[in-house]
Each structure stands twice: as structure tokens, then as C-alpha cells.
Amino acid sequence: MSCEVKELSWNGFPALAIGNSRVRAVLVPTLGARIVSLLHRNDSGHEREWLWSNPYMEPQLPDFGVPYWGEFDLGGWSECFPSVAATNYPSGPWQGTQVPEYGELWCQPWKAKVAVTDGEAEIRTVTYGVRFPYRFERIIRVRKDEAQLSLSYTANNLSIFPFPFLWSAQPIFDIKPGMSLSLPVQEMTVYYSEDSRYGKLGSMQMWPTLQGNDDEFIDVSTFPTKDAGMAVKLYAKAPRSLALRDPSTNTELVMDLPSPEITHLALWLNFGGWSGIPKRAKYYNMIVAPCIGAFDNLQLSVNHFKEFGQIQPKNVKSWNLNISFR
């Protein structure tokens, strides 16, 4: 099958599906261009959905700036910019302006433009800052017969002032006990740990064996059972490649990060340890998040950690990543 883009409906929202015979992604432009499905079909025809979907939330159109986790953590793949955590902007004429939780991109509609040939298809989605002067673009491309999606990004600073920012893609993966993550890093910094079990902000851990505060050690490169009750977010310097493997289907998702602009990788390991909805079962999922800058909170990153991206006045920053299957 050649490359194609189809219009469809996802939970009542207009959506676009891009794919070929091996891979398909579905995105919803009106919901922050969130990718809600990432499907791979192997040589034997078996299909594997790689993105987690929240079974406890009904998709709805958000108002700008509303809290994210309690009502709009639908799963899938969102983009965070110019901060991940809610914060006040740290500099320039916007100093003190509130940045919403998860940034500005997820809670507003994007415009979409489609281009298709027999050998390649792309969906170009664009939106603009609400409280800040930028243009943000993401292009998803697939090529005929390749089990791969390419994602390229461009952020334009429309102002005459430097624009510090954090960016993080947030794919939430549907994982199972016994799956494994191959990650060529060692030192990792804790951003958050449920009940401070694996340290507080700034604590150091060595991948893949995490040390608990009771001197418990756990190798998290192979995922534990759902009753492990752990939730921890870690940051590391970005590797150029990593792989998530599912032995039950003998398939592997590979994330390549060729752009030097991508400086960090964040991992959210939620093995039955956290849920955004009170009195609901704790989630079992994982976020593997390529980032520009680190530690979620832009104000903290600029003023303390000094780990952030910056776009010069009237200038552009571009980067890209690839997702492939084997």
C-alpha cells in the first residue's frame, strides 16, 4: 500500500490518519494536534498499538490554560512548550506571565495541511503562542513501505527579544510487565519520585538500577509487575538512540534523536504508582520524552539549573526525531 492520509472521526473530533502498510499514526488537530494512536503492523500482519489511552477520561475540548492532569490527561502523544510545568515566565517583557500546566500547545487547535504522493505523505500542523510571540510547527512524514515516522519541528521567535523555552515531546507508551528499555545512559537526575521513594529533586541515580530510600535496589530496564507501586521521573543527557522492546510480540520501537538541539531525555516510569484521578486505579504506563532543556519548570531551568533552549530575536530553531519499528 502506498502512503496515504485519511480523514476520520476520533471520539467525535475530526482526526487525520497518516500511514502506509507498516505504520499508522492518528492525530487530532483541534486537541493540540495530539497523536492518539501509533500502530505498527509486523511482517505476519500482527498489529500493536504503542500509545497508552486513559480509560478514565472522556475527550473534551479544553479551555486555554486549564489544569492538565486531573481532566485532560487522555494519553497519546502531546507537545509541551514553552514549559512543561506550570510556572511564571522568567525573563524579557513577559517576565511573570503565567505559563499553563503542560505549556500552551495542547489546549488550543492547530491548523493542518496535508501533502501526499505515492512515495511519501506528510501532515504539517501549525499553531501560534497565546501569551507569547512564537509560531510552532510539527511535520509528520511517512514513506512507502518503511516502518518509520519522521517528526520535524520548527519554532519561530516572532519578537525582538531572546526567547528562552523548554520543549518536550510526551509520548505515553502502553507497556506491559517484562518489556524492556535499552537506554545508553548512566547518570540520571530525579525530578520527581512518589513519596520521595527514589530521592527528591536533584538526587542522582545510576541507570538502570535505582536505589530506594530504604536501600532497596530495582533494575528498571526490565519492567516490573503492576503491583510494584513505583512512580519516578528522571532526566539524563539525551542519547542518540534508544529502544523499547515487547517480547510478547517480538517487536521493538526505536527512537532516534539525531538533532544536537535535543539536549535531554526525560523518563516517567509509572509502574502502578500514580494516578491523576483520585480513587482510580494507579496507571501502568511510561513516558520517554526527548527534551530541549531540563527539569520541567522553565523558571527553575533558567534561574537555577541553566538547562534550557533559547531562540534569538526574529530567529528560528529546528530539530527532528524518528520513530521506527522492527
Please give the structural blueprint.
Elements (H helix, E strand, L loop, with lengths): L3 E7 L2 E7 L3 E6 L5 E8 L5 E3 L27 E4 L6 E2 L9 E2 L11 E6 L3 E9 L5 E10 L4 E10 L5 E3 L1 E7 L6 E3 L4 E7 L10 E3 L2 E3 L5 E3 L10 E8 L3 E6 L4 E6 L7 E11 L8 E10 L5 H8 L3 E3 L4 E10 L1
Antiparallel strand pairs: 1-2, 2-3, 3-4, 4-5, 6-14, 7-8, 9-10, 10-11, 11-12, 12-26, 13-25, 14-24, 15-21, 16-17, 16-20, 18-19, 20-23, 21-22, 22-26, 23-24
CATH fold label: Beta-galactosidase, Chain A, domain 5
SS class: mainly beta
Oligomer: single chain
Uncertain residue segments: none
How many structural domains are formed by the residues? 1
In percent, how helical is the residue content? Answer: under 10%
CATH class membership: Mainly Beta
From the spread of the alpha carbons, the general shape counts as globular
* Count of helical regions: 1
First-last Cα distance: 18 Å
Largest sheet: 8 strands, antiparallel
